[in-house]
Amino acid sequence: xxxxxxxxxxxxxxxxxxxxxxxxxxxxxxxxxxxxxxxxxxxxxxxxxxxxxxxxxxxxxxxxxxxxxxxxxxxxxxxxxxxxxxxxxxxxxxxxxxxxxxxxxxxxxxxxxxxxxxxxxxxxxxxxxxxxxxxxxxxxx
Amino acid sequence: xxxxxxxxxxxxxxxxxxxxxxxxxxxxxxxxxxxxxxxxxxxxxxxxxxxxxxxxxxxxxxxxxxxxxxxxxxxxxxxxxxxxxxxxxxxxxxxxxxxxxxxxxxxxxxxxxxxxxxxxxxxxxxxxxxxxxxxxxxxxxxxxxxxxxxxxxxxxxxxxxxxxxxxxxxxxxxxxxxxxxxxxxxxxxxxxxxxxxxxxxxxxxxxxxxxxxxxxxxxxxxxxxxxxxxxxxxxxxxxxxxxxxxxxxxxxxxxxxxxxxxxxxxxxxxxxxxxxxxxxxxxxxxxxxxxxxxxxxxxxxxx
Lengths: 141, 303
Prior knowledge:
A: 39% helix; B: Alpha-Beta Plaits; 7-stranded mixed sheet
């Protein structure tokens, strides 16, 4: 079918647990999209990642149908994987949860650079480093 | 009926690139989802280099303690990142009008007619006249709700040309609408396929909702899903992108019965000439060119 895009909506929703409540409802409702159908499809496709928060970009077409793509996992998830930990520090600022290397940051920045909307790779690296520090991860040079 | 929940929008203006971290920081407890950017024209646009991150809390969870906690987490995150561009971000709280979002979108989904086909949503149970056919449809995750110019033109062609008993091939079936309309009009067998991995299920549901499931088959994939022996279709439909029509005009022609007819749509005006040339080179002739807005539809047969 000749799909004509009329809107792109970026959201972050819990895998398998999206609901018609905001932000899904008002964002999609403004485009006349069938909200229950989006919620059902998003939850079906993400059920196996339950517990994760997933960035999603929804394309709305002129005839009010839609499709969506799941973007790269949040940087925090990639950082925890790199630091081999399952959660960030409980008391960020006083407790160190783990550490990541400069190389880890560069690799994650590479994965995330398109989805982050960063100005350039350096900016993407700074964002990933800032994210790491905010989780109680030490950035090793 | 219970009153819909009232929601509070919590909005932060964020330097570009940092949206995800800000969203992540604010998503805890009752705040489970976030929106970025400008989801619709009704909301204010962020200044260049910035973007809005929005999270939402229901009014009955909106306490001073929660607002303080949100502010505290945002400030703490900014401090820990050691990034000057993140310092001093402000939270703005805005109460949204009460609305039941699960159902309110339906208000803007009006029934419409194309020839004798009445396209009605499932919740509209009105009777249609004896000479009309009801198509129960609502917009979903596969393209083809009937509202786009190309789909409407194809539906109109079907209402004018399907006589009953035809075998129909529907390339790029999307929601399955053209196959289902063909079946409602009396086609004997309809075979639809689409590379959209969710199309076959959506199209199957549409056929079932309209009681034409036995006449319709849907597959996921492109032309490779067709077997060599699957030829001789009385009607070949292709409401797809014009570059796909150009690429596969010969494949489509090969499947068409010698005395069959085709309808290809989805061709924007700027692609008119190469698309017509490809159709011609495939041994087909267009004897009914149609146009709706900037979209062309070609109806024709073998030369």
